[in-house]
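User: Is it possible to get a 3D structure for a protein together with its bound compound? The compound here is phosphoric acid mono(formamide)ester. I've pasted both below.
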Amino acid sequence: MKNLIDIESLSVNDINQICTRAWEFEKGSRKANHQSASVVNMFFENSTRTKMSFQMAQSKINVKSYDFNSDVSSINKGEELYDTINNLSAIGMDVVVMRHSEDYLIDDLASRNYYQDISFINAGSGKHAHPTQALLDYYTMRKNTTDLEDRIVVIVGDVAHSRVARSNIALLKKFGVKLRVLAPPYFKGEAIEGVEYHTNLKEAFDGAGIVMALRIQKERIQREGLEYTDFADYVKNYQITKENLPPNALLMHPGPVNRNVEIKNDVIDSVYGKTILDQAKNGVFIRMAVMDLVLGNRGQ
Ligand code: CP
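Assistant: Yes, that's possible. Here is the predicted structure of the complex:
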């Protein structure tokens, strides 16, 4: 694994290897020391969980970690991002961890030649891909279930704007997991083959074993000038409550949560809400595993 750009490029074996390695890091049976390696974190969109867990993971595998702040960089003097990264490679960076609002920019950057070879890890690209989120979500599901293939996973909410949904669907389809999307027409997005689409919560939640709520992406909705901005219809018909959550279902959410919008506050603050924090914790081990594999492949 030289780069991690999207889930589609990973095989089932790759995903199992990443999860096994994450488990070894979590249990303490594996240690890694990449003291000769340098990683630069380039976040052009806001982040708490992804950025901080990459940093925590970098510290745990003893990588030298650098934070690129675009606000005070020469990008503001008009430098093209390719040239910036080419210079970072000349300076000695081995890996770029990047979050960017453009869907396929990282795909393009990873396909180009650099002064010294450099690897790319996608920390979220536009509406397209968030591979480490899907990996940590799958890891969380595996840790909490022994029968994932027999469970129905329902992804609820703003699928149209969600890179998390796209990457989760791509990953879970590889494992033959039964997938439903529950969304109002204005959040449905393009239909994906192999996914059952619902607009009625009762029907979608019938027999569900895992419910994954998505964040309503207010900033993207506003940027696109779309009209449905009060979310009253969404809350009335799709908000997850103690009453409508299927019994024994695992409740997940990638974060950040819009409290009392996607999920009612008393559910977030109950035992059901704990898995959401487990997801954040598991992100550290998954990102340790991904960086360990990328750096190992580079001989570092
Ligand atoms: N889930 C996720 O990507 O969260 P952040 O935007 O805080 O990184």
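Residues 54 and 124 are 12 Å apart (CA to CA). The chain has twelve helices and nine strands.
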